[in-house]
Amino acid sequence: MGPTPRGPLLLAVLFCVARLACGNASQAQADPFDSPLRCVEPPHWSSGGVSPMTEGRGNVTVVALLQASCSFCLSQASRLEILRQDLAADGLADIDFLVVNSGGWRSRLLSYQLSNRVSFPVYEEGYFTSIWETLHGGKDDILVYDRCGFLTYQLRMPYSFLTYSFVEGAIRVTYHGDDPCNCSIGESQMTTKVPPVEDGMEDNQALKRNETLQSDDFETNITTNSSREVEPAGNITVASSSRTTNNPSNMTEAEPESEPESEPESEPEPEPETEPEVRLKELKKLHRHHDKQYDPKK
Description:
The protein is an alpha/beta fold and 298 residues long. The chain has helices at residues 7-29, 52-55, 71-89, 105-109, 111-117, 131-134, 166-175, 185-193, 197-245, 248-266, 275-293; strands at residues 60-66, 95-101, 122-124, 142-145, 151-155. The protein folds into two domains: 52-193, Glutaredoxin, CATH 3.40.30; 199-268, no CATH class. Helix 9 crosses helix 10. GO terms for molecular function: selenium binding.
């Protein structure tokens, strides 16, 4: 037997390898969390007159599309509640969780089972409009929205299975502002918390005005207190003058306030020291009189 032709066989092998390589490359480039509504203005939807996406603007929002008649969906709801508690324990508290129940009649009847497993709202689909179709979602999908209301990640099975960490990772990335939509509402909230320069200058000026007012009030209080403290001095002078004029009414009025200060001025304590001098003067007068009486020259 002659040698078999290798050309067609090699071509077939090369074609299969190229096909596999192209398939792997396309799968690697495809984003499993992508959606036609990603990073675009989200569609409006409401349930029972409530618009959760509009009211939750400014917070990260997690929407789970579950079916109350499905036992796996009930276990997903319980795991989602545990995830919410874990995130809150880590300080990620401003995250809104919600569930949109399926619109089937059996799911409507068993909606209370979802509500018993979670502490966040459970919304029902409308009779004529489907929220799931509006969100381009399906059963067991979990959608993560940033603070601007844009869809950042839409996780489908098996990525939405809460035993894995895909949902938690998507929530944390969106919460810390590393989402693909580049939401800037977090920065605006920070600027609202920290006042701008002009407001700060006005506040500083107001503080300065308050300080000047307080200092003026302090000075006025000092002057009033000083004037009040000076008043007893006036009473002291009146009391001294009253003592000089020997007015008993003024003395009785001013004595309780001016006794300790007026004692050295009004009471003649040093006078007993002059008594010998007075006696000497009297003796001299007597002596002079005696001299005048018995003067031999006269």
